[in-house]
Amino acid sequence: MANLLAANGGIFAAKTETTLNTWEQPTGADVINVVGTPSFKVRGAGLIGRADLYTDRGGGQVPVRGGVGWDITFQTELYLVDQAGAASFNDNPLHVLFRACMFNFADNTSNVTLTSTARMAVATTRSPSYAVQPCSMQWQQLDGRIFQAHGCVGTFKISGQSGQKVLIDWTFKGQWQSIPAGSDVLTPITSPDYTGQQAPVIFAGWSLTLNLTTGDSASVDVASFEYTQGVTLSDIPDALATYGFGVSALAFDNYPQMVIDVASQPETTQTTWTNAFNVTPANGSTPPLPTMTLSYTAAPVAFSIVLRNPKQLAMPEEAEANTVRRQKLTFVGLAISTADADQASQITFA
Q1: CA atoms within 13 A on the CB side of 284
Q2: At residue 86, does pLDDT exceed 90?
Q3: How sure is the predictor about 284, in pLDDT bands with cuts at 50, 70 and 90?
Q4: Could you tell me if 67 and 245 are in contact, meaning their C-beta atoms sit under 8 angstroms apart?
Q5: Which member of 67, 133, 145, 162 lies 3.0 to 4.6 Å from 44 by CB, making a disulfide possible if both were Cys?
Q6: Please, are residues 130 and 103 in contact by the beta-carbon 8 Å criterion?
């Protein structure tokens, strides 16, 4: 009997591409720890049957391959690399993935800010600052097959449960990268380097600043959070491309959003129901616009997620846990001008 292949082992790596639409071979320095097993699913026409072409002997004709690409999903932990003692944000193993997402990217070495933007360009360098930098991805199953994709761009969700790891769910679309037969043209990663994979951030010791129109909801027991970027990822059919797909499109189709599970407080101090009816327009003058900031500073690098001019998108959902009343609150951020400081959401590593 042949050896069976383990389903929970392998090497995942991603590398920013230096030439558009050109495969960039990841090396051992480009590996990223993933939670569980990445999913590589073929999209497009794939193998096209020709059963409509009959012969006098019955059956169809030889199938042909149509357009193909990759839909890729995987999960990682949130890492914070000490940028004060590192060369740049690029020392974070996740930097390749963030650069392949839709942000206005401000990198001045000591801190990196990812700001919401509705503009998309594709470039191998961050020029203009909102340009998405595609990457090549490789997944090597343990003693099994190798999956490769280039021109990968994507979006993500960050979430955390109290006392647990903060996790990032990534969704990418990539162009087809053939896996030729023969070790002379296939380059597996034989020496993965995980030394840069630091301990993940735990959702404990964080702070929440939430100043709304009335009351003060800053002092609440937060059990969980979930941040979504509000970005959709779409196929771009391109008959000029070898396999029928171009680099996928990223675009805003929703608000940047934060969902938090909090303990219910007396309505006199936690006016979540009152604020749910606060649908007044954003105002760029006084008083200062409110912000919602979830931040972590118990590490060499501070990490924060900000929603500007937050509004509740849904009525509070009532629940119970551990014999106390809780609420699930859904907030969205609103942009009020073209300035980076006024965009709907912002993620900062500092």
Answers
A1: 8
A2: no
A3: low
A4: yes
A5: 67
A6: yes
**Residues 127, 1: contact at Cβ < 8 Å?**
no
DSSP string, 253-279: -S--EEEEEEE---TTT--HHHHHT--
Residue 322: CB atoms within 10 Å: 8
Tell me the CA distances in angstroms from 336 to 61, 135, 251, 343, one per residue in order. 59, 32, 18, 7
Nearest to 42 by CA among 15, 69, 78, 74: 69
DSSP 237: B
Q: 289: which 2 tokens?
A: 């616009």
- In this structure, the strands spanning 131-132 and 135-141 are unpaired
| More reliable by pLDDT, 279 or 325 | 325
CB-based burial label for 196 (10 Å; 0-12, 13-18, 19+): middle
**Cβ 114 vs Cβ 347: under 8 Å:** yes
Token readout for 243 is 């396999």
